Amino acid sequence: TGPTQADEHEPEIKGSPDCENCVKLKGRVKHHKLQIDAERAIIKELRNTLEEQAGKLNEAERMNKDLVFENEKLKKKIRQMESGAEREKVSMHSEQVTQQEQL
User: Fold this and answer.
1) In whole angstroms, what is the distance from residue 86 CA to residue 58 CA?
2) Would 33 disulfide with which of 6, 47, 77, 86, CB 3.0-4.6 Å?
């Protein structure tokens, strides 16, 4: 693998290959760098997932607004139809009364 972002910020640890402490320290640093790279990859994946979910949420909210709008239109149409039916009923009743009065 190539140099990581952590490599760019941390100086190379110099030390004697014969020194046991230097070798252990280099090993620990390398282990931590690999851990940091793995955590960065996880963060990147989580960020992508979060962005994807945010996109889905936005789409769902848009669809919900559309459905609410359609629902309101239908309610208005139903009220108009009910109102028209009530007027028709009153009109028919008036005609019946008028016809009965004529008899």
Assistant:
1) 42
2) 6
Residue pair 46/72 in contact (Cβ under 8 Å)? The answer is no
| CA distances in angstroms from 63 to 22, 57, 58, 60, 68, listed in the order given | 61, 10, 9, 5, 9
Q: What is the pLDDT of residues 68-92, one digit of tens each?
A: 999 999 999 999 988 887 878 778 8
Going by C-beta distance under 8 Å and a sequence separation of 6 or more, which residues neighbour residue 17? 23
CA dist 9 and 20 (Å) reads: 25
- Would you give the DSSP letter of residue 10? S
